[in-house]
Amino acid sequence: MLLQDEQYIVKWLSQYGALTTTQVIKMLQKKPETAIKIIKNLKRMHQISDVKGGYYLGLDSMCQPDQRMILAIWVLLKFIEQVDPMAHYPAVYPSQLFFLKENTGYEIVTIYEGEEHLLKLLQPDEDLKYIIVIPHISMASKLKLPNAPCLFATVDFNGKDEPEITFYSEGEIADETKEFIPKSAG
């Protein structure tokens, strides 16, 4: 029988596919040393495996990471302290992830250049907010947004393992230049 935290890890990897080791450690919300021990124990029991040399973790070593999901998880991690470990799960396409925070549902949608049309597939609900992850904030001006509250996020690795996430709101367009002013960084 797996311990609670071990069950969480297995569930997350079964839902999302391979995730970075750093993401799994942060999702556990434990001291890194404790999280590493939990991960090592799961590996010893052959419940999870290293993927791509240990940068990722998966249910088996052949798991292929989904980069859209990886970006969505980095955004989720900015809210993880306010989200129950089992209150997030895969969303319906084109969204990657759904989570509940303070009785409000959020969907994280990762889109790349040339995929602006995918936002037309979203099904807005009155109690749902969207976080749209885009490569750069200038792309936001090209988007036709759903009829729901939206927040934008950019994920910038700057050569590091852990990225910097910057959030922007719809209302932060500075006059006619349509440049966005960061709401919060880090």
Task: Throw out a few tags for this protein.
186 residues; Arc Repressor Mutant, subunit A; 12 strands; disordered C terminus; 2 domains; Trna Endonuclease, Chain: A, domain 1; alpha+beta; globular; three-stranded antiparallel sheet
Can you describe this structure?
It is a single chain. This protein is α+β, with helices and mostly antiparallel strands and 186 residues long. It folds into two domains: 1-65, Winged helix-like DNA-binding domain superfamily/Winged helix DNA-binding domain (Arc Repressor Mutant, subunit A); 66-186, Trna Endonuclease, Chain: A, domain 1 (3-Layer(aba) Sandwich). Helix content is 24%, strand content 26%. It contains four helices and twelve strands. It has helices at residues 4-16, 21-28, 32-44, 67-76; strands at residues 19-20, 49-51, 56-58, 88-90, 97-101, 104-110, 128-133, 150-156, 164-169, 173-174, 179-180, 184-185. Strands 4-5-6-7-8-9-12 form a seven-stranded mixed β-sheet. Helix 2 crosses helix 3 (32-44). It starts with a helix and ends with a strand. The model is unreliable at 173-186 (pLDDT under 50).
